[in-house]
Amino acid sequence: MIKEAPDRCGIVLTSIEILRIRLVAAVLLWQFLMVLSLGVSPLRAEGLRLITSPWPPSNYLSEDGRPTGLSVAVVEALKERVGETAPIEVIPWARGYLTAQQNPNVMLFTAGRTQERLDMGFDFIGPIVMWSHVLLAPRDNQVDVASLEDVRSKGLTVAGVRGSWQIKMIAEAGIQAVETEDHATAARMLLAGRVDFWFTSRLQASAVLMELGKRGDAVVPVHTVRRSPSYLMVSKGTDAAVLAAWRQAYADLLLTDFFDRTARDWSGRLGVPLQFRAEEGFVAESLDLGDTGS
């Protein structure tokens, strides 16, 4: 015969129901203790989705399909410090930017720290890389321009990556913009004579041309538009504790020799002398677009 036991609220429970409640409580207690023994908080905040785009030498896919680059090295070092295990995804910039606009807990890198993005609620960690943004022309077909107004008035065309601030600036200046999926495509179009200029950075041009097996002196900088640092950009609504942990990890990393070691490593890989400055990020001081590939 099953006995019934009244609880303090006047609800009658059978002995079997009491046993089930005790078993559930025991299982929950065991799970809680196991989580603590692994050193993980049971209330751990959600981590970040890590997204980058093909933007060498800051971030791109290596020949074996792995994310690599200056900023990828930084993010991997920070992941280790904060205990993040999410993989780095390499997708087109436009798709990554849309994802970061629409979702919290997304890190998109690297990105310029513009007023528009600040107004959209993005947070920034860094800077990581300093870019000197220029209009590049083929060496054997140079067109002299002194400003973006010159480019517009002469009816010249400029190639840039779809969704980037560069292509937006060109379009807003009334210049005929040709949008591409990546910088390699823009470089090919320039060298094939399909556009007049390629809008990119000196550092990036060196890496892209090397990957294409082209000489760096196949193109020349015609007009410097601006110099700007790029950052790790974190989406609006991201968990405050997660953002704080990544910022602290970056501050701690600055106190080590990590950035100097990384600069030396990538100087050797790119054949470009790099330095790291906390206020600018990785910098190519005197970049020569000479022989960067066979």
Task: Name a few traits of the molecule.
294 residues; alpha/beta; 8-stranded mixed beta sheet; two-stranded antiparallel ribbon; 10 helices; globular; disordered N terminus; disordered C terminus
Task: Explain the overall architecture.
With 294 residues, the protein is an alpha/beta fold. It has 10 helices and 14 strands. Strand 1 and strand 2 form a beta hairpin. The strands form 4 sheets. Strands 6-3-7-12-8-11-9-10 form an 8-stranded mixed β-sheet, with helices on both faces. It has a two-stranded antiparallel sheet with strand order 1-2. Strands 4-5 form a two-stranded antiparallel ribbon. The radius of gyration is 26 Å and the shape is globular. The N terminus and C terminus are likely disordered. The termini are far apart.
Strand order, biggest sheet? 6-3-7-12-8-11-9-10
Return the average pLDDT rounded to an integer: 85
Number of strands: 14
SSE string, helix = H, strand = E? EEHEEEHEHEHEHEHEHEHEHHEE
Individual helix count: 10
**Classification by helices and strands:** alpha/beta
User: Which outline best applies?
Assistant: globular
Strand proportion, as a percent range, falls in 25-35%
Distance between the termini: 90 Å
Largest sheet: 8 strands, mixed
Radius of gyration from CA coordinates: 26 Å
Instruction: Report the helical percentage.
Output: 25-40%
| Model regions low in confidence, pLDDT < 50 over at least 5 residues | 1-5, 7-11, 30-45, 286-294
